[in-house]
Amino acid sequence: MATQEVPLNETLAHLKTESETLKSKLEEERAKLHDVELHQVAEKVEGLGQFVMKTRRTLKGHGNKVLCMDWCKDKRRIVSSSQDGKVIVWDAFTTNKEHAVTMPCTWVMACAYAPSGCAVACGGLDNKCSVYPLSLDKNENLAAKKKSVAMHTNYLSACSFTNSDMQILTSSGDGTCALWDVESGQLLQSFHGHAADVLCLDLAPSETGNTFVSGGCDKKANVWDMRSGQCIQSFETHESDINSVRYYPSGDAFASGSDDATCRLYDLRADREVAIYSKDSIIFGVSSVDFSLSGRLLFGGYNDYTINVWDVLKGTRVSILFGHENRVSTLRVSPDGTAFCTGSWDHTLRIWA
Amino acid sequence: MTIRTARPNRGQHFWPRLYCLQKLESILLEMQDPKSGVKGSEQKLNVTTIPHVITGNDIITWITNKMMITTEEAQAFSTMLVAYGYIYPLQNHKKLVMCNNNSLYRFQTPYFWPTQKWVPEDSDYAIYLAKRNIRKKGMLEPYEQAHYNHLHEWLNHKWDFIVMQATEQYKAGKERKKPDRVVFDCQERAYWIVTRPPPRTQSAMDCGPERLIDPNTDQVTGEYTHTHAQTGVLVKYITTYKNHDPFLASCLPSNPWQTDNDAYWTLNMRRVEVPTKMRVERWSFSLFELLSDLRGRDDFKIFLKKEFSGENLAFWEAAEELKWGTASSMSSKAETIFKTFLAPGAPRWINIDGRTMGLTVKGLEHPHRYVLEAAQTHVFLLMKKDTFFRYLKSPTYKDIQKKALNPEQHNFSPAQLEQNALNRSPGIHPIILWQQEEEEKAKAAAASAPVDVKAMMSKIDRKK
């Protein structure tokens, strides 16, 4: 009796159709819960006035592309990392450089400031995330006390401390995210589900603080439960790699920025996208997004060297800021919302207020 | 459920910008439309007349009208066209920006567009430099000379071929009419400025490390809960916080980044005696806000002490420390928490329902990071629904509201602002603040620890 050999193409084609059918069914179900759109609710909200946002500080000191930055909880210090392996801690208010570390690898794509203000974490092409305790002694060699915490099998794309200095959450080009114990370097939880490089992550600001969102090259944004390691929600509406995800200040929603030149807002309870921020004249990808303190404004750093400011409720662009001479690679609002900082491939960082 | 699909090779990991550049090209084609595009003219460059030359002014005006954006944005947009090599400048050819004046530009021939399939190889560059060498008899720019020497070294095995090609192209060039030759030379030079940028210039062609895509896994997962859109929640949050958003309302006394005066930060430090009115108002927004601001938490503790109900918050804090602490401290912390809060007859026994208590105590036999989750949530909800509202109505809160500061808005003259900029305060280093905090915490813990009667007695005995 001859064995039945189904040609491989047919099986794949069949599965592909099945996958598309299921996807459209999911969309149908989601659409049934379609409620009032965000901008309709926002019609009753008053409009925003004119904005005067200027560069208040320009931080020069990196010898190469600035890739990432993070604020200290003291609202004035920042840590930044660059392509040449340098990680610098600045007092952005006085523009003084306070510490500098040279990593043993290039392309340090991730850096984070510890909540206590006493350490910084960074990593990149070395596939690791290392923690450097900071010191009041300017002459101390910080590299001596370096602690290797995370180990991935591909580049580190993002890292973030949780509510204390003791745990770090990382995302990597190996397609996974992971939670680590800093003291022992132990892997506490790993998160599998992305089908390609994970490029960004953000921890939820909720009272329970048990979830985080990640975005990847598979165009998906996934929400994870830190306790179980499960992906509890997934959103796939972007048309290209998601470079940045950031929670809305209340934790009920999050925004994403992608290479498809759009930013999108996703409502977690409704489980769907509720707004798209795009314009015909904006063609280049968004590298980084963040909200203002109230959540009314969404700032986006773009690959065409500009920063666009969006009205989250009405979906319109309220301002466009110029100044950088190369792509804006990172953007973060300060902890008290008084300013935001951008880092660029033009080797500089700028503080805007 | 897992479904695997064959994912088409997007090729994006070689050309991350392909998606964007194709959109740029469609606009470019419109710009070159003989009727509705940008009007070109003939211009004299040295002694040659070059056709189809456009000015920066005209380009920016056309884009402003076409896309209905401001001139500034149009300039930024057209700088992208120059940065990627779709339009090149005739004067000042090394600076790839669009100037809003009579500077002259030309459209680049599609052969040299960045989206063409061929990758600019080093041997192509070597041929180009060799050709320039022949023509200008060794008048390459220093950086080009450096490239040339380097290529000569590592492409040495091919050098005869390269020189042959360069000579061929040079001869072929001489056969052309002068204007065509000049145009082609400009185009080629522009192409190489874009793909091999001079040192210390910004280049749009830079790209990050390669993003790897595994084409063989595609999962469709996700269970979701059926609830309705909570867009009202987002609007409510914004309305509540809008006066506290420094981008929407002014900070009092002033935004330190704008005036170079850090009074705003000093007034809002962790351990101020008297907080500001805005800060106190923010505590009333939610229990989460009140607890997140440690100064607010202090005030809440004062209230709880008066009510003799501090154990709930103490438990919540201890549970937070367990959750976010080091892995090695887990067991000892769990034990302390059990003894202090959960054991029958414990000194700070918390009142939670029997079921939760049972589950928690059982879980503590094998403590892990989230073992207190259920109890902590229960306690938090208790505080949120009851204690928090009583706090807001209490004399403690009303008292601090009255005492709270309302700083005057700063009104600096330009001279004063200049002075401020020269005298920016360094503030206190976070490490020092952290050390102070740890000391305070240790003191507080010692003060609130249950009195050890035996030790007290033996102390008294020893004194006798």
List the helices and strands and how they pair.
The complex is a heterodimer of chains A (353) and B (464).
Chain A: H1 8-32, H2 38-41, E1 55-60, E2 66-71, E3 77-82, E4 86-91, E5 96-102, E6 110-113, E7 119-123, E8 128-133, E9 147-151, E10 156-161, E11 167-172, E12 176-181, E13 187-192, E14 198-203, E15 211-216, E16 221-225, E17 231-235, E18 242-247, E19 253-258, E20 263-267, E21 272-277, E22 286-291, E23 297-302, E24 307-311, E25 317-321, E26 328-333, E27 340-344, E28 348-352
Antiparallel strand pairs in A: 1-28, 2-3, 3-4, 4-5, 6-7, 7-8, 8-9, 10-11, 11-12, 12-13, 14-15, 15-16, 16-17, 18-19, 19-20, 20-21, 22-23, 23-24, 24-25, 26-27, 27-28
Chain B: H1 18-31, E1 41-45, E2 48-55, H2 56-67, H3 71-83, E3 87-89, E4 104-107, H4 122-136, H5 142-154, H6 159-175, H7 178-195, H8 231-241, H9 256-259, H10 263-267, H11 277-283, H12 287-292, H13 294-307, H14 311-324, H15 330-342, H16 354-363, H17 373-393, H18 395-403, H19 414-422, H20 430-448, H21 453-463
Antiparallel strand pairs in B: 1-2, 2-4, 3-4
Helix pairs in contact in B: 2-3, 4-5, 4-6, 14-15, 14-17, 16-17
What this model shows, in words?
The complex is a heterodimer of chains A (353) and B (464). In chain A, 8% of the residues lie in helices and 45% in strands. Chain A is mostly beta strands. The mean pLDDT of chain A is 92. By secondary structure, chain B is mainly α. Chain B has 21 helices and 4 strands. A 4-stranded antiparallel sheet of chain B has the order 1-2-4-3. The relative contact order of chain B is 0.07. Chains A and B meet through helix 1 and strand 17 of A and helix 1, helix 3, helix 8, helix 9 and helix 12 of B. Chain A: Belongs to the WD repeat G protein beta family. Chain A: One of its GO terms (biological process) is heart contraction. Chain A: This is Guanine nucleotide binding protein (G protein), beta 5a. Chain A: Keywords: Repeat, Transducer, WD repeat.
